[in-house]
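Record now logged underneath.
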Amino acid sequence: MPSERNVPIVVERRGVLSENLSRWMENAKLSPREVAERTGLEETIVCDVLRGEIPRPLLGVLDRLARGLKVDRDTLLSTAVPASRRSFDRRTNPIVAEVIAAHPRLFDDWAPADYDELYSRFGTGGELTYVGVLACARAMNRRRELCAKLALLLETDHAEGIVRTIEQAYELNSASVF
């Protein structure tokens, strides 16, 4: 009988990060070695994340994975939308596919979760209009860019001031909403 120290840890279910990373790697046809090369991470770390053995890596590891795969951090951590809802959203917002086809550069580096979010949006009175889809897509891209900039700034000497500013703004907004 093996000693307790030699028994492998069995992960019942991989986490969201490992599932999303696996899906991105499969879509991009990347091996763990190629992801390691793109991110500067050790291949063993990439494999550990894939197996779910590192369900919550350090922020720096997560950022390197996101940059290496050319996605934002939120995409790697987003939970999947159920297939039944995706189907419903695509039927109720048919104009989204038309906008995607007409403006492919606007959707560079989008993850499946980004498309799910866009399809799930609604305009005043129902489905999105052509202009509404464009506005939502641009707003989502702007938010992603701002989140990436904020993540970088939070790694600098300015982090504490930024955190205080955000907390103050949040407090002011919460007070006016509630």
